[in-house]
Amino acid sequence: MRGFLFTAAVLCCICTGANAQTQEKVEQLDSVIVAVSRAGRNTPVTYTYIGKRELEDAAPGKSLPMILSLQPSVVTTNEGGTGLGYSKMTVRGSKGSQINVTLNGITLNDSESQEVFWVNIPGLNNILGSVQLQRGLGTSANGAGAFGASVNMSTAYVSPDPFSSIDLNVGSFNTRGMSFAAGSGLLENGLYANFAVSLAGTDGYIRNAWADVRSFFGVLGWMRGDNSLKFTLLSGKQHTGITWEGIPASKMAEDRTYNPAGEYTDASGNTAYYDNESDNYLQTHYQLNYTHKFSAPLTWSTTLNYTKGEGYYEQYKAGKAYSKYGLGHGGKGDVITRKQLDNGYAVLNTTLKYKTNALDLSGGAYLAYYDGDHFGNVIWDSIDKETDYEWYRNNGRKTEGTAFVRGEYQAASWLTAYAELQYRHIGLKMSGIDDEFSDLAYDKSWDFLNPRAGFTAKFGAHKAYASFAVGHREPGRSDLKEQIESVNTLLAQGIAAEVTLRPERMFDTEIGWEYLSEKLSAGVNLYSMEYKDMLLETGKLSDSGYAIKENVDRSWRRGVELSAAWKPVRWMNLTGNLTLSTNKIKDYVYYEDTNDNANDWKYVGKTEVKAGTVDMLMSPSVVGMAGVEYMPMEGLSVGLTGKYVGKQYWDNTQTEALSIPAYYVIDAHAEKTFNIWKGKMTLGAYCNNLLNRDYYADAWVYRALFQNGDPEYVEEGLFPQAFRNFSVKLRYEF
Q: For residue 236, which phi and psi values (nearest 5 degrees)?
């Protein structure tokens, strides 16, 4: 670690937002809503910008979180250990449900779980025009306030000329991929069309981490004078092995590629694995946007969006009580189940933007309706064999109405003031029974007011900013479902109980300074994210891999973010970032499941444990990156990047035995571009985990006590990442 900190200190010195100097263009009429959801160059928000070329040049076989892994304060992990398939990211320690993700101004977070399942929308790096990653509460034009970060993605790109490209890649673990993109360019009559298709697959690093993912993207648009009309379709399909159980710690030394998913004992007493232990989902986004410019400063834009999702995950369950599934047989046996989803999400998003040299004012409304069915079927059991018995069904409906007004005023040539106010109304209604036969009846609404204010001052190559923001966020369906089940269990035992999950609130203060010159960009950002009733993960997972949460009264994330980019000579780039933080829960009290004894496991309640002030789970206090790129000749680039992630705890008890050791991983790449025929060809070679580090990047844990004094029960799942592995890519643009 000392070597890493020395390298990062040399590169970073003083800084944050090093990538902010690369400002995106606000591209023609069809980018107005995207621009509204993003921070501008004078908005006092902490962010980095990732452009189209940087996205296209990323190592192949990676989901978008893995491509963003080198950004400040970002930590990523992949369940299968390779980068393709189920991937997760945290920003400043904040998890996926606290990161607001938008595509062309439309929120992608699942309305119920508040998560974004990146595996459902593969191949994004080939279709996106740009990504802005905001840290902290950020802007709040649409959707829920971000409680750690916002990922604002844009496909808004109208090429003046026709184009096409093809990408092919292969790599370790039988990873392979192909994508093709083409566009008509803007025609004389104002029409244009773009499309892209992506196919990717892998066998994965751990057993059953295979993936078969594909996506299609299409745009048909018209732009003439002061009008723009555009239809966008994005569809993603996944067929992947289940990996969310992780690997028991006891198996790591013996076989770190072990995966218990689908494991059972056959008739001969041998260990066998069900060959379709899989997750399957199809998600399609339809967007229609109309934009009209009334005058040079005034523009109106409206988007209609409908997202359709449907799929299931299939599992083999060995030695289960038939009564657990409502089957008429007595005793125990093996069953194969499918837990299914069928949902629709409709959005109306409208924005009015007024912009002059001194004033940038925007306002709008966001209306959304979600309707999702959850149901489960037993498709086989040891007695009936083939069957199609539905054992549960429930529904969730969520409505949301958001209105906002946002303004930036240049009070002087060097000073810009910023203010924003967002109102959100959310209604959630749940009905039906879940897979434990628990009644999920629930009906609740919330109203939130989220203000933001700040200023930016610029003096030559220097920029300073400060902002303060307040955000609120409601509990998700998966959070509520787990508590409703617990409440129903207690009520059945005659114990008074009620659903007590509350919305979380955060106060975010950001103070930053940046410097930008031809060869050097540098800056520093201080942040303080103070939480009330934070919905915090416990370290436990539900049966389907969701993180189980609870409210904690008082907690905070405070830190300093440094980043820099330096080009000392024409043929070399040096980059780096470093985050030092403290992430605490004050006077943490948790409640551990308690049973009578280790043989009978009769539930008797929960035991209160006072842990004091502790570190939050999966929130490293040190995160950093250092990179060097060498360009010895025209069209040739060779580089190294190193990522350091400090120690992380599996849960919120700050138990040393339940922690992920710090790790430092180096990746290498080499790319050469040739002008060939009428186009340009790029060959790339990539090595991940160059030093062959043995590490794991994520974990969960379940703990239980016994009333008779038997030793505490601990069950865990670790997610090892692959040893040294390679990939090559060929890209041809013409």
A: -130, 140
What are the pLDDT digits (tens) for 297-317?
999 999 999 999 999 999 999
Residue 672: HSE in the Cβ half-sphere, 13 Å Cα cutoff: 6
Collect all residues with Cβ–Cβ distance below 8 Å to 257 and sequence separation of at least 6. Answer: 205, 206, 207, 720
pLDDT digits (tens, 9 = 90+) for 539-548: 665 555 556 7
Q: For residues 136 and 94, what is the distance between their CA atoms, to the nearest angstrom? A: 9
Q: What is the C-alpha to C-alpha distance for residues 372 and 384, in angstroms, rounded to an integer?
A: 30
At position 386, the amino acid (one-letter code) is E
Tokens linked to 349? 């998003």
Cβ atoms of 593 and 635 closer than 8 Å: no
Distance from C-alpha of 374 to C-alpha of 393, rounded to nearest angstrom: 6
CB 581 within 8 A of CB 94: no
Give the chain's domain count: 1
Task: State the Cα–Cα distance between residues 365 and 380, nearest whole angstrom.
Answer: 48
Contacts of 119 (CB under 8 A, 6+ apart): 63, 85, 86, 87, 211, 213, 238, 240, 279, 281
Over residues 229-248, the mean pLDDT reads: 94
- Could you write out the three-class secondary structure of 255-276? CCCCCCCCEEECCCCCEEECCC
Could you tell me the residue range of the domain that residue 301 belongs to? 2-733
pLDDT of 8 over the 60 cut: no
Give me the mean pLDDT over the 93-122 stretch.
85
Q: Residue 666 is part of a domain; what is its CATH number? A: 2.40.170.20
Contacting residues for 656 by C-beta, under 8 A, at least 6 apart: none
Q: What is the DSSP code string of 510-544?
A: EEEEEEE-SSEEEEEEEEEEEEEEEEEEEEEE-TT
What single-letter amino acid sits at 198? S
DSSP state letters, 353-412: EEE-SSEEEEEEEEEEEEEEEEEEEEEEETTTEEEEEEEEEEEEEEEEEEEEEEEEEEEE
Q: What are the pLDDT digits (tens) for 200-217? A: 999 999 999 999 999 999
Do 153 and 234 form a contact (C-beta atoms < 8 A)?
no
For residue 734, give Cα distances in angstroms to 183, 594, 679.
11, 65, 4
